[in-house]
What does this fold into?
Amino acid sequence: MARRSSALLLVIALSSCKHESAPPAPANHDIPRATVPIVIDGEWTEPDWSKVSLRGQFLGSDGALARPSSEVRFLHDDKDLFVGLYAADENIQTSDAFELHVGALALRLDATGKVTPDTPGLRVALDRDGSLDDPKNNDEEWLLEVAIPLAATGLTPGHFVDVKASRCDVTKDGVNRCGSWSGALELAP
It folds into this structure.
């Protein structure tokens, strides 16, 4: 009887423990091939950006949609990985930036359109709805359209590469809010 009681107590004790679960593994996704030429002009006017691209909404550390809202989009052609980065932003600052990791390639892309480190063949264009470094203004958003040479990414059909996009933003109420999106990506044929 004592052995049963001990076993029962152990089961009860184990069931009441709170176990931290590991974060979910990044999802595997194919990056769609663009059906029309993508012009790097800071405007997502090509229909592929809205109809074909792989899209990911940023999530906060709580798993809910990040606020302010951020999004990443992906397309490719034979030469480039195309990345679209969107940031809702009520107070656009020079220091505002996305961090983008594609395999071993790590980039910082800021609200001025500057990319670091310098990557040969990379092209970027910016569209900003708001003023830079003017906290009195109520800004709206900024977005980047980026072409990264495929050779710099490690992406190929049939070979998945870990990709992560993240962004933190200090809102007008002085709170630093962060969000990110990640996945294991390969090129669709």
Q: What stands out?
A: The longest strand covers residues 176-187. The chain has one domain: 25-184. The longest helix spans residues 2-16. The CA atoms of residues 45 and 61 lie 32 Å apart.
